[in-house]
Design a protein that fits this description.
Blueprint: H1 11-21, H2 31-43, E1 47-51, H3 54-64, E2 72-75, H4 82-89, E3 93-96, H5 108-120, E4 127-131, H6 140-150, E5 153-157, E6 165-166, E7 169-170, E8 179-183, E9 196-200, H7 203-212, E10 217-218, E11 235-236, H8 247-257, H9 260-277, E12 283-284, E13 292-293, E14 299-303, H10 312-321, H11 337-340, H12 350-358, E15 359-362, H13 370-384
Parallel strand pairs: 2-3, 2-4, 4-5, 5-8
Antiparallel strand pairs: 1-9, 6-7, 6-13, 8-9, 10-11, 12-14, 14-15
Helix pairs in contact: 1-8, 2-8, 3-4, 3-7, 5-6, 9-13, 10-13
The structure holds pyridoxal-5'-phosphate.
Length: 389
C-alpha cells in the first residue's frame, strides 16, 4: 500500500534520540528549549512552547486567550476535529464558517457575513481558529482586519503548514494572529512521533501557556503570590495540565528541522508533477493562491462528478483496491455524531458539503518516488474509467 502520508526517519534522527536515551534527562532537560528556539528562529516568532500534541497546543492557546463558558469559538468545518474540540474543552460554544470553494479554507466573505449577523445577536466569537488546509495559508490579512473590527482573537491551526510562507513570511511569524499551532504527528511535515507547538509574539500569552502546559505550576517568584518559602518551593497558580513534550521527542524534532526546507521542496516537486500528470483527467487539482507557498501537507483533488460515470465512493474504493492509500480530509466536523447532538444542520455549510462529496487526498510525502507517483496516477486513471467528455 502506498500511504497518503508517511514520516521520513534517517540515521541522524535515530542518533539524536539514542543520545537522549543515554543522557541524564528523558524529559524536562535541555533539548526541549533547543527545539523551541530552533522553530521560533526559523519562522520568526518570539516565543515557542513545545507540547505533547497540536491538540494540547490548541487547548492551552484557547485557555490562554481566556476562552470560557458563554464564549464562542468559530472555525472551518473542513478540518480535523481538534480545531473545534479545543473550544469545547474550555466550555465554550462552537460554530463554523463555510469554506472558499477555491482554496477550501475558511472563506473571509462568509466570515464577514456571519460576523454581521452575530453582532446583531450579541454573539460574536471570542476566538477564531483559522486552519491552513493542506498547508495553504488562509487569507490571513482579511481575517486579521475582521478580527480588529469585530474584536476577536485569531489562532492559526498550522498543523499542515510548517515550512510554508504567507506574503513571503514564514507561517508562524504571527503577523496576523495571536497564536500559531504546529503538529508533529508522523503524517505531518516534520515529526516528533506525537508533538505540537504553540508560537506567539506576546509575552503574556507565552507565560500563560507555559504555566498551563505543566499543571499551572511555577518556580518563578515574579508569578507567585508571595516570596518563596525556600529553595524547594513552587506554586500552583492556575489549573494546568501535563502537556509536556519529552526530550526524546524534542531531539527528534531538532534533527527533523534540519530537513524541513528539503521536505517542503520535495512536496512542491511532487505537486508540480501531479499537476502535469493529472492535466487530462476529470479532476480539479489544488489551486494555489499567489500570496502563498504551501507546506503541502496534503494533495487534495476534487472529482468532476458531472463528467465521470463513477461515484466518489467507487473511485475511492477502486484506488484502495489498487493499493493506493488515499484518504479524505476531512469529514465535515459539524456532521460528526457528537456535533450533530448540538443541532448543526449538515447543509448549513453547502461549500463544505460539496467539497466532501468530491475530495480525495492522493499520496503526498517526502519519500514518495516518481515511480510510485506514476502508479498512483495510473490507478486513478483506471478508477475514473470512461468519461462523458
Ligand atoms: C493533525 C491535526 C491536528 C491535531 O494534531 P495532533 O498533533 O495529532 O494533536 C489539529 N488540527 C489539524 C488541522 C490537524 O491536521
Amino acid at each position: 500500500m502506498i500511504p497518503y502520508g508517511k514520516q521520513e526517519i534517517n540515521q541522524a534522527d535515530i542518533d539524536a534520540v539514542l543520545d537522549v536515551l543515554k543522557s541524564a534527562f528523558l524529559t524536562q532537560g535541555p533539548k526541549v528549549p533547543v527545539f523551541e528556539q530552533k522553530v521560533a528562529y526559523h519562522v520568526g516568532a518570539k516565543h515557542a512552547l513545545a507540547v505533547n500534541s497540536a491538540t494540547s497546543a490548541l487547548h492551552i492557546a484557547c485557555s490562554a486567550l481566556g476562552l470560557g463558558p458563554g464564549d464562542w469559538l468559530w472555525t472551518t468545518p473542513i478540518t480535523f476535529v481538534a480545531s473545534s474540540n479545543c473550544g469545547l474543552y474550555c466550555g465554550a460554544k462552537v460554530d463554523f464558517v463555510d469554506i472558499d470553494p477555491r482554496t477550501y479554507n475558511l472563506c473571509p466573505k462568509a466570515l464577514e457575513a456571519k460576523l454581521q449577523s452575530a453582532e446583531l445577536e450579541n454573539a460574536l466569537p471570542k476566538v477564531l481558529v483559522a486552519v491552513h488546509l493542506a498547508g495553504q495559508p488562509c487569507d490571513m490579512e482579511a481575517i486579521f482586519k475582521l478580527s480588529k473590527r469585530y474584536n476577536f482573537h485569531v489562532i492559526e491551526d498550522a498543523s499542515h503548514a510548517i515550512g510554508g510562507l504567507y506574503q513571503n513570511e514564514f507561517i508562524g511569524s504571527g503577523r496576523y494572529s495571536d497564536i500559531t499551532v504546529f503538529s508533529f504527528h508522523p503524517v505531518k511535515i516534520i515529526t516528533t512521533a506525537e508533538g505540537g507547538m504553540a508560537l506567539t509574539n506576546d509575552d503574556e500569552l507565552a507565560s500563560r501557556m507555559n504555566l498551563l502546559r505543566s499543571h499551572g505550576i511555577t518556580r518563578d517568584e515574579n508569578l507567585m503570590t508571595h516570596e518563596a518559602d525556600g529553595p524547594w518551593y513552587y506554586q500552583q497558580v492556575e489549573l494546568g495540565y501535563n502537556y509536556r513534550m519529552t526530550e526524546l521527542q524534542a531531539a527528534l524534532g531538532v534533527s527533523q528541522m534540519d530537513r524541513l526546507d528539503s521536505f517542503v521542496a520535495r512536496r512542491h516537486e511532487l505537486a508540480e508533477r501531479y499537476g502535469e500528470l493529472l492535466k487530462e483527467l476529470p479532476v480539479t487539482t489544488p489551486w494555489q493562491h499567489p500570496d502563498s507557498y504551501s507546506g503541502l501537507h496534503l494533495y487534495v483533488i476534487r472529482l468532476r462528478l458531472d463528467v465521470i460515470n463513477k461515484t466518489h465512493r467507487d473511485v475511492f474504493e477502486a484506488l484502495r483496491a489498487q493499493g493506493i492509500g488515499v484518504n479524505l480530509h476531512y469529514i465535515p466536523v459539524h456532521t460528526q455524531p457528537y456535533y450533530q447532538k448540538m443541532g448543526f444542520q449538515p447543509e448549513a455549510f453547502p461549500e463544505a458539503m460539496q467539497y466532501y462529496r468530491e475530495a480525495i487526498s492522493l499520496p503526498m510525502f517526502h519519500g514518495l518516488t516518481d515511480h510510485e507517483q506514476d502508479q498512483v496516477v495510473l490507478a486513478l486513471r483506471e478508477a475514473l474509467g470512461g468519461t462523458d467528455q
